[in-house]
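so im writing up the methods section and need the RNase III inhibitor record in one place, dumping it here so i stop losing it
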Amino acid sequence: MALPIDLWLIHPQTEMCDAFRDRFQNLPRVTVIESRFEDLPTHDCFVTAANAFGIMNAGIDAAVVHFHGEDLMRRIQHRIMDAYLGEQPLGTSFIEPTGNPDYPYVAHSPTMRVPGSISGTDKVYAATWASLLAVYQHNVSQRENEDAKIKTLVFPAMGAGFGGVPFQEVARQMAVAYQHYLDPPHRMDWDMVIRRQKAIAYDQGQLVIR
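--- predicted struct ---
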């Protein structure tokens, strides 16, 4: 069963925030914030829409490094080298402490191997899903330590920058991942797989991911 978290969705542009509100409107514990990363209030974990090598010198990743310091990027890169032999697979995420008690964690969650378009793929879903799983596993590991749990999880618009994914599609795939987090299956069969695949790949009956 999924553990409850408060989900914040942030972007500086009204159009993206409107897409978030549209796609997440029926999902619980979601707050949409029209904001830059630098202006966010205190929170527990920020998701970095990263590349597979932890090179965080552009986009919102650069803002995260500027805020927390370059040692955060070095630690992330060392974890990638140690755990993934130098290339973190898409669809994975890990939690890295920041050392700042007001913003204690980031989740490093690649949406792409290297910067480039991911439009027409399910990589936004995969990165969002991986981030939610990483937070879930972190919180399970901290059952006896309430103060160390992640209660507020902040997502940027995954894949909307270098990835070139349209705002509505970013919000749709992220919302599907959160819905699946909230409602995990109770049995594994092909009917469940087909329902899940249709939710990921179709929008209003139209195939949008191949």
